Structure to design on (451 residues):
C-alpha cells in the first residue's frame, strides 16, 4: 500500500497548474483533496509520473452567492459547503446530498471540484450537478470556458475536459420558488459508496400540481443519468402514491444498471424504484411547506 | 513555475511543538509521524483511507493521515493521539479518562483514530446524541467491541463536559 514513485509539482496559480498539465500531459494527475486519488495511488491503480498538488490555489476555496446562483471554487471542501448557511437556504439539494458523502473526516479534506472532476458514477456531487443544472467553469491554455453538467460527464471517470484543462469552480443556480428537493441513497453502511442514489426536484403550481420535475439517478450507469421519461409522467399531475409508483416504474425502464459485489443489476433496478418513490414523497413534502 | 521535486522540506507543529523533516514526496503524513518523528501512537491499518485508525487533526479538522501527503502539511498544526493528554499536568483528557472508565477499547488498534474524531465531535458539538456519536465514529472500524462501549465512553465524556 505505497504509491509508486512520482515527482510533485506545487503550482501557485491556476496558470501554473495548467502549464504543468500542458508540459506533462497524460503523465500528470491533479491532486485536490486526495480522498479518491490517494487510495488509487496507494493501490497502484494509478501511477502518474507527476502529481500536481492544487493545495496552494487558495483562491479556489470561495463560496460566493450572487444574482441567482452560488459559485463554489473547486478547492472548497465538502465540509465548508455542508456548513454554509447560504447553500442551506438557496441550494437545498447540495445541502441535502453533501452530508451523505462518506464521513466527516473525508468531507473535511474532499473538495467539490475533486469529486466532480473524478466523475465517479456512484458519487453524489456529479448527480447534484446534473439535477441542479450546474455549470462547470474550466480553465485551460486557451482560457476559461463553461460546460453544462449535461455535457460534462461523458463516461465513468471521464469528463468533457481536455487533458490540459482543470476545473476551477462550479456555478449552481438557486432553487426555483415553490420547489422541493430530496437526495436519497442506499449503501451497505452509512458513508459507504451508494449502491443507488436518487436526486429529485419537484416544483408545484398554484393548484399544487407538479409543474416541473427533475430526477437524476447515480450508480446505475457510467454517468449520472436524468430519468426524463419518469419526469414526464409527473408533469401536470397532482402528487399521489399511485403517480409516484408509475413514475418509479418509468425510471427503471431506460436503465441497465451494472452488477458488482454490492448488488445485482435487478437489485439496483428495484432499489431505484424504491428510492424514486421515497425521494418524490420527500421532495413534494418539502415543496408544499 | 515551481517545477517538480522528489524531496521536500516540511515544517509543521505536532502537538504544539515545532518539527521539521526532509522527506520523499510520496511519504504520507502517517509515515512522517511514525517514521520520521517517532510518534507511533498514530496507527496505520488499511493504508487506503478505509479503516480510520490513522486519523489525526490537521489545523483542527480530522484527516486520514494515510491519505495526506507529508508535503501537504507544511505550515500546518497537527494533533495526534499523543497530543490529547494535558501536557502540563500529564493527565489524560476528559475523553480519554471517560473511555477508560467505560472500558471503551480492547486491542487498541482503532483507539487513536476514534479518540481523534471524538475529540473533533465534542469540540464542535459538546452534547451530542447517541446517534450523532455513532455517525461521528462511523468512518472508523473497530473489530473488537461492537462499538457500544466506545459510544458509552464518548457520551460519558460529554456528560462531564470534555
Amino acid at each position: 500500500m505505497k504509491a509508486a514513485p512520482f515527482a510533485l509539482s506545487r503550482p501557485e496559480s491556476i496558470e501554473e497548474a495548467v502549464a504543468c498539465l500542458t508540459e506533462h500531459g497524460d503523465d500528470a494527475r491533479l491532486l485536490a483533496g486526495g480522498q479518491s486519488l490517494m487510495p488509487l495511488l496507494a493501490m497502484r491503480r494509478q501511477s502518474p509520473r507527476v502529481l500536481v498538488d492544487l493545495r496552494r490555489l487558495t483562491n479556489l476555496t470561495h463560496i460566493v452567492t450572487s444574482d441567482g446562483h452560488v459559485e463554489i471554487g473547486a478547492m472548497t471542501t465538502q465540509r465548508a459547503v455542508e456548513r454554509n448557511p447560504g447553500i442551506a437556504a438557496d441550494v437545498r439539494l447540495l445541502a441535502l446530498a453533501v452530508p451523505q458523502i462518506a464521513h466527516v473526516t473525508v468531507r473535511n479534506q474532499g473538495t467539490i471540484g475533486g469529486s466532480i472532476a473524478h466523475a465517479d458514477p456512484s458519487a453524489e456531487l456529479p448527480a447534484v450537478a446534473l439535477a441542479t443544472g450546474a455549470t462547470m467553469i474550466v480553465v485551460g491554455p486557451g482560457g476559461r470556458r463553461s460546460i453544462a453538467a449535461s455535457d460534462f460527464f461523458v463516461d465513468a471517470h471521464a469528463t468533457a475536459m481536455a487533458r490540459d484543462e482543470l476545473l476551477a469552480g462550479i456555478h449552481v443556480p438557486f432553487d426555483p420558488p415553490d420547489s422541493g428537493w430530496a437526495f436519497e441513497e442506499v449503501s451497505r453502511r452509512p458513508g459507504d459508496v451508494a449502491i443507488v442514489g436518487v436526486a429529485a426536484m419537484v416544483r408545484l403550481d398554484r393548484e399544487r400540481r407538479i409543474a416541473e420535475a427533475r430526477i437524476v439517478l447515480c450508480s446505475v450507469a457510467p454517468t449520472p443519468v436524468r430519468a426524463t421519461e419518469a419526469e414526464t409522467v409527473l408533469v401536470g399531475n397532482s402528487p399521489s402514491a399511485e403517480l409516484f409508483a408509475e413514475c418509479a416504474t418509468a425510471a427503471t425502464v431506460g436503465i441497465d444498471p451494472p452488477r458488482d459485489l454490492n448488488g445485482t443489476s435487478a437489485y439496483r433496478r428495484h432499489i431505484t424504484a424504491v428510492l424514486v418513490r421515497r425521494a418524490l414523497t420527500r421532495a413534494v413534502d418539502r415543496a408544499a411547506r | 513555475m515551481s517545477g517538480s521535486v522528489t524531496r521536500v522540506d516540511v515544517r509543521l507543529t505536532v502537538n504544539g511543538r515545532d518539527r521539521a523533516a526532509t522527506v520523499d514526496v510520496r511519504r504520507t503524513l502517517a509515515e512522517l509521524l511514525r517514521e520520521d518523528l517517532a510518534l507511533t501512537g498514530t496507527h496505520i491499518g488499511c493504508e487506503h483511507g478505509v479503516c480510520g485508525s490513522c486519523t489525526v487533526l490537521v489545523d483542527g479538522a480530522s484527516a486520514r493521515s494515510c491519505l495526506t501527503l507529508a508535503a501537504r502539511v507544511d505550515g500546518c498544526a497537527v494533533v495526534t493521539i499523543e497530543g490529547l493528554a494535558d501536557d502540563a499536568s500529564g493527565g489524560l483528557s476528559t475523553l480519554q479518562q471517560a473511555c477508560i472508565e467505560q472500558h471503551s477499547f480492547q486491542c487498541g488498534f482503532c483507539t487513536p483514530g476514534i479518540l481523534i474524531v471524538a475529540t473533533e465531535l465534542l469540540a464542535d458539538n459538546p452534547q451530542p446524541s447517541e446517534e450523532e456519536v455513532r455517525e461521528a465514529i462511523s468512518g472508523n472500524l473497530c473489530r473488537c467491541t461492537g462499538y457500544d462501549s466506545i459510544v458509552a465512553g464518548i457520551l460519558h465524556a460529554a456528560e462531564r463536559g470534555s
Summary: The domain at 180-288 of chain A is CATH 3.30.390.50 (Enolase-like; domain 1). Chain A touches chain B through 38 residues (CB under 8 Å). The longest helix of chain A spans residues 265-288.
